[in-house]
Specification:
This protein has about 350 residues and is α/β, with parallel strands linked by helices. About 50% of the residues lie in helices and about 15% in strands. The strands form three sheets. A four-stranded mixed β-sheet has the order 3-4-1-5, with helices on one face. A four-stranded mixed β-sheet has the order 2-6-8-7. A three-stranded antiparallel β-sheet has the order 9-11-10, sandwiched between helices. Strand 7 and strand 8 form a beta hairpin. The longest helix is centred in the middle third of the chain and has 29 residues.
């Protein structure tokens, strides 16, 4: 279990990430690509991604094991500001930090070891590091261009085509957590997180492969919802780095595609379902969602019946224009980037 200890200052400094972190999504998707779970949600995505992968990923495979620890430098905090900003931060990694984290990676021999349990690294030396990692360490930052190239190639195949869908899930998560924050402050926000995260003030308990305590010491905590994070939350190993908790977005857990559907690229979504969205009433309903609305609020704003509002929201959800997240007995509808672009009459930003 992971226990994150808050002070009063930390509670005041809890914040939600403003967008999905492209580097976290890329690294975590690499885990999803190699496992066989959640076939309904990720099955078609795995097939499509593998068919597009025509670049080298062996170095990524060495740096990102199937389970356990992977180097913190792969997910710099700057990644929250965008893909290019994150890659620039990775390009500037200090050689000594890279060597230290790669040595930790090479010394791990099991789940506990891979997550950095003290016994795992007490005798770790360069001799214990696999050859591919040792070559990478010995070369210092001269191998960074290769790593950056593999990351770019993999991201283009596995994450970029689905970015609109990922953004929609994270924006739905932000809307739900924002409502909790407005209703009851940081305490309510932390209590509203998905069930693998349990707020028992002043400690946030998280399902985790090993027993670990993280003390925030007044630095606050960045909550980073993720589409490709599954089952358990993830945090950085180095306690001196800015605290971040990456956790599965509740919208992704609660509203997985039905009827065998999988996460799909934007253009395919548009071709399959955009034709369903016609008529004045649905345009009014889509605009009425605004920054988020329950079905009752949507019916009141659009001047339609509750049943009609629910039906229109369902059609727009199938068309990729709306995401719906259940909260207790109510649901919260939010507009996806595609829906927002339609309302604005413009294209979706990549």
């Amino acid at each position: 279990m992971l226990r994150i200890h808050f002070t009063g200052v930390d509670l005041a400094r809890v914040r939600m990430a403003g967008r999905p972190d492209a580097l976290w999504e890329t690294i975590l998707s690499f885990h999803r690509l190699r496992d066989r779970r959640d076939a309904r949600l990720f099955g078609e995505w795995r097939t499509e991604t593998r068919s597009r992968l025509n670049s080298e990923t062996r170095l990524l495979g060495a740096l990102i094991p199937s389970r356990g620890y992977f180097p913190d430098f792969l997910t710099p905090v700057e990644g929250q500001y965008g893909w290019d900003v994150g890659l620039d931060a990775l390009r500037g990694i200090r050689p000594e930090r890279m060597r230290r984290e790669l040595t930790l990676l090479g010394a791990g021999t099991g789940v506990g070891a891979a997550f950095g349990m003290p016994s795992a690294v007490s005798g770790g030396t360069d001799a214990s590091v696999p050859r591919r990692l040792r070559d990478f360490m010995d070369g210092g930052t001269k191998h960074l261009p290769r790593l950056l190239g593999e990351l770019r190639g993999y991201h283009r195949a596995a994450v970029e085509p689905y970015w609109t869908h990922i953004q929609a899930q994270i924006e739905a998560e932000r809307a739900a957590r924002g409502r909790a924050l407005l209703d009851g402050g940081a305490d309510e926000l932390l209590a509203s997180l998905p069930p693998m995260l349990r707020w028992r003030a002043p400690v946030l308990e998280c399902d985790y492969p090993v027993d670990r305590d993280v003390r925030l010491r007044g630095r606050g905590l960045l909550l980073q919802p993720s589409f490709f994070c599954r089952k358990t939350a993830v945090t950085l190993h180095d306690p001196e780095l800015p605290p971040v908790l990456v956790y599965p977005a509740a919208a992704q857990l609660a509203s997985a595609p039905t009827g065998g559907e999988s996460i799909r690229p934007l253009e395919e979504q548009r071709q399959r379902t955009l034709g369903k969205l016609v008529g004045h009433t649905r345009s009014v309903v889509l605009r009425a969602i605004g920054d988020g609305a329950t079905t009752s609020e949507l019916a009141r704003r659009a001047g339609v019946s509750l049943a009609s509002a629910s039906q229109h929201a369902c059609v727009m959800r199938e068309a990729g224009l709306v995401t719906t997240l259940r909260r207790g007995n109510a649901v919260l509808h939010t507009v996806t980037p595609l829906g927002a672009a339609l309302l604005k009459g413009g294209a979706v930003a990549s």
